[in-house]
Amino acid sequence: RLLKYLLENEKNLDTISQKQIAIDLNVRAQSLSRVLKELKISELIDTKKGRIEILNKDMIMKELW
To answer: Which domains does the chain have, with CATH numbers?
Structure first.
């Protein structure tokens, strides 16, 4: 769900906080943080000051299929 959310909201990610994403996806902030960390380690995303940047859109799309 998170990957789909990130792609659908890619243009607004610089204005959406991680807290808001957790609320939108109805997940605990700690759970979201753990998944974001895994995605960052995989170099699919980067996080800075609580904001998310997609680094590898093609790989994210492959993960969805």
So the answer is: 2-55 (1.10.10.10)
